Amino acid sequence: xxxxxxxxxxxxxxxxxxxxxxxxxxxxxxxxxxxxxxxxxxxxxxxxxxxxxxxxxxxxxxxxxxxxxxxxxxxxxxxxxxxxxxxxxxxxxxxxxxxxxxxxxxxxxxxxxxxxxxxxxxxxxxxxxxxxxxxxxxxxxxxxxxxxxxxxxxxxxxxxxxxxxxxxxxxxxxxxxxxxxxxxxxxxxxxxxxxxxxxxxxxxxxxxxxxxxxxxxxxxxxxxxxxxxxxxxxxxxxxxxxxxxxxxxxxxxxxxxxxxxxxxxxxxxxxxxxxxxxxxxxxxxxxxxxxxxxxxxxxxxxxxxxxxxxxxxxxxxxxxxxxxxxxxxxxxxxxxxxxxxxxxxxxxxxxxxxxxxxxxxxxxxxxxxxx
Length: 371
Fold this sequence. Notes:
It is an enzyme of class 1 (oxidoreductase). One of its GO terms (molecular function) is protein dimerization activity. This protein has 13 helices and 14 strands. With 371 residues, it is of the alpha/beta class. The protein has two domains: 2-162 and 348-359, NAD(P)-binding Rossmann-like Domain (Rossmann fold); 164-340, Dihydrodipicolinate Reductase, domain 2 (2-Layer Sandwich). The strands form three sheets. A six-stranded parallel beta sheet has the order 3-2-1-4-5-6, sandwiched between helices. Strands 10-7-11-14-13-12 form a six-stranded mixed beta sheet. It has a two-stranded antiparallel sheet with strand order 8-9. Helix 2 crosses helix 13 (343-359). The N and C termini lie close together (10 Å).
């Protein structure tokens, strides 16, 4: 019996399953060794249709829709008790206002259903962990304080950070001992970050838009929360490095590129910086989690790399590519980073968080769900 329980996959619900990030969750979880999508939920207008009917011609992934989800009947995401009853935990990618998202994610948590969210609504809730698993998995410890506030025993909310920071925050974490204290970053962000394809957004063809609402604030502040620490039951953000950002939308489907300048208190050599990048690993690598990249950060020596077309799918989109590291005349060093914004930066990052949470014992089978 015990062995059977071990072999049973945890049953997962996707909230906001019909949108682009919801679709990415569904494609990433196809054949996942630990998790199985058994419930899809979306807005009331999709409820009652099969997933295939609800998505219709709006399937945005390059791989076909998994057969296993096509006939699942979409549930109304607002019927919290009903959706929560059949799952062990949920991924959240709902499209609502921030206040609505905060409320509904906590409502799910209060049904004793853990919520792993792709949304930004809870990223600054003091007792909600915002985690890049290779960098700050110890922040998951704040969950115990959150459960006290929510009055739950197994329900909680955990989030992953914004897609815009994935191409440079890991480098800053890898270089922590050299004390980076000032950073300038410009991100060149793909249109899938807005949930769009070129078919949906023809004005992006051969165009650059120098504004993405709210993105610069997230890009400047979120790395500080990742690099912060747990104190008195809340996550307190780090004071350094001070980061200033510009975020630009570019005509690329997948892949956010960052051009970054850094000042360090302790002056490293280029060789030391590269060594820290390529040897940087964390809990996901230690535990061999299913979605973990074997090598989190690769360093590319060629002058013209990383490139979106050549490198965005490094480690199935879960790794980060860094290149063009060199000394700078104003700052100490500059480099270019690249990450896959809807894999590592969105759904994949959330799946890796969930794998971490399962491995650490925060997510398990609901005792009242039949085997």
